[in-house]
Structure formats: structure tokens, C-alpha cells
Design brief:
Blueprint (H helix, E strand, L loop, with lengths): L7 H25 L5 H22 L7 H25 L5 H9 L1 H8 L4 H4 L3 H22 L5 H41 L4 H4 L10 H22 L2 H4 L7 H28 L2 H4 L2 H16 L6 H17 L1 H5 L2 H18 L5 H26 L1
Helix pairs in contact: 1-4, 1-12, 1-14, 2-3, 2-10, 2-12, 3-8, 3-10, 4-8, 4-14, 5-8, 7-15, 14-15, 17-18
Amino acid sequence: MNEQNPSTAAIVFAYLVVYIVWGSTFFFIEKALHSFPPFVLGSIRFIIAGTLLMGYCGLKGYKIFNRADIKQAMFVGFLLLFVDMAAIIWSEQYISSGIVSIISAATAIWFIIFDKPKWKENFSSKPIIMGLLLGFSGVFMLFAEQIFAQQDSAEKSQNLTAMAVMTLGTIGWTIGSLASKYSQKRKPAIEQTDKTEKTEKTDKKKEEPLNVMVKTAWQMVTAGTTFTVVALLTGEYQSFDYTRVLPADWGAMIYLVIMGSILAFSSYIWLLQMRPATEVSTYAYVNPIVALMLAHFFTNHQVTALQIFGLIIVLFSVLLMNWNLYKNNRTLRALRHRKKLKKLKNMAPKSSIPRIIEVAEFDYKEKKKLQKDKTENEA
């Protein structure tokens, strides 16, 4: 795979993996739960995935140890891969993987609420506020369906508890993501303002930061270790008999390790380097659709019209909450620029067309250069 100039086929393949494989992990978690207790499932999945990924990084020659980066990776891994995934796995014992995927898609709500540095920007935007209200209404519809469902009170209470736990898991994912985001931004500021220790550090060699894949491996190992501790404390490992695991459920586990935790994430990281982040983030619209379709065709859970309507509302709310990002996406800007240029060419006399093209291209290049300089300065 050419990193500098990737082929269209490579990009399409990576998108298919991120869109379909990540969406299918909700379904395969539900399948694996037929034989694996929830915390044992998380333990085996992330210990194996983290070990394999760490081994790959070692073979590639990446640096493995850096105290500051490992400490941060452990914190983020605990929130992102343990808290959120534990909520997903535990919840899928009681509610459909399709419902879990819809609640997971509503994570954008919590990013708006908990991203304090962007409160002024977010809450002054009408599309974001509309998206926030729609997102809450979509999630409320899912809860309302369970509240008014015709089932015994014990099952109803269990389902509502599972949905509440799932919601708390998405909040954990949000806090972990924001902590990772702002810790990276604080590092340069701390290095510039901390003048008292600057002289002491000049003689010391600055530690090389860890590759993003290594950090991810540490996050997986952290999650796997935490899952293991909890599984031991709750007695899940003591009662777990691996000889009674069905072959199909071992297949689901292998799929989650290889396809879900390693291949899908690697494709996601690679796409972030090759394509605009706003374009890559569109996986959030496809994953719940894939999960809902798999739940409908391959499980005994009934996908209701209310769930589909709730999904549509949630996805539309996510679109509104990200509207400002998509509006300023470089691909859309390029399309608008071409449309404007075409309009000018049609309006102008033939003799002036070359000059219009020249001026327009110069203006576009200058804007791109300024934007690149601004991004580098912010970084």
C-alpha cells in the first residue's frame, strides 16, 4: 500500500472495513455472549488483540516504552476500551445489539455537552442546538419504547437498566476522548510556559513520543487487564469452562479480535492520515445501520418501526451537530470553488476566461496556503 499516493481501491477497501466491520462488532458481541461471560469476553478479546498489536509494533521497530505516553494511554484505554466496551458487552446480555448501536451513535450529544472549551461556539450555533435536541428525543424514544412495552416488570426494569448503563458507557467514551484530545494540546503550552525547569531539561534527551499504534496497543492491554481483574473478582473466570464454548462463538471471538480490534482500527488510523477527518467520521452514520440490519436478519430480536425512526432522528441529529465541520470540509470547498469558477466562465467573454482561471487558481492556492499555515501554527 503506497502511503504517499494510495490507490482508490485501497481507500475504498479501508472504508468498507471501517463501515461494515465496526458496525458488525455489535452483532458478534451478542453472538459471543452465548458462551462467554461479559467480562471474560472483554478480557480475552483485548488481551489477545493488545498482545498481537504490540508484537506487530515491536517487529516494525517502534519504540514501546515512554512513561508519560503509557500513563496517558492507560487512562484513555480505561475510559474508552474498558468503561465503554464493558457497558456495550454487559448491556447486550439484555437488549438488542441494534438498540445498543443506536445509543452508541448518540455519543455526539455528550461531546457537545462535555466539551467545555467549545461551549461558546457550540451553543451559539443553531444547527448544533437543533441536533442536540433531536438527539435527545431520538434516545428518549428508545427508552419510551421499553417503558410502554408489554412485558413483565422485571424484564422491563432489566432492559431499562441496560440502556442506562449503555448511556453511561458512551459518556465514559466521550470523557476519555476529550481527555486524550486536550492532553495533547496542553503539552506544547506547558513546555513553553514552564521556564523554571527549562534549564534542567536542556541536558536531558527528550523522550521520543510513542507511535499511535503503540499507544493503542497499551490501551488494549490496559482494557484487557482491567476486564481480567473484574472477571476474577466477580467469579466469571472460576465458572467459565472453555471446553463448553461453541465453535461458532469461538469464531465470533476471533472475528472481534482480528477484524474488530486490529484490522478495523488500523484501517481507521490509516484513513485519518490519508483522508479528511470529517470524511472518515461518516462511519458513525453507517455502523448503526449495519448493526440494525444484522440484528433484524440474524437474531431473534424484533426491529420495530420506532427503533428505525429513532435511528433516523439520531443520525440526522449527528449530521446537524457536525454541520459546521462538514460545511468547511476541504472536499466540499473544492466542489464549491469549481462550481463558482464554472459560473464565471459561462458569464465571461471567451477572451477573459484564461485570466479568470488564472486568478481563481491563484486565489484558491493562497487560501489553501494560509489555511495550512494556520493549522500548523495551531498544532
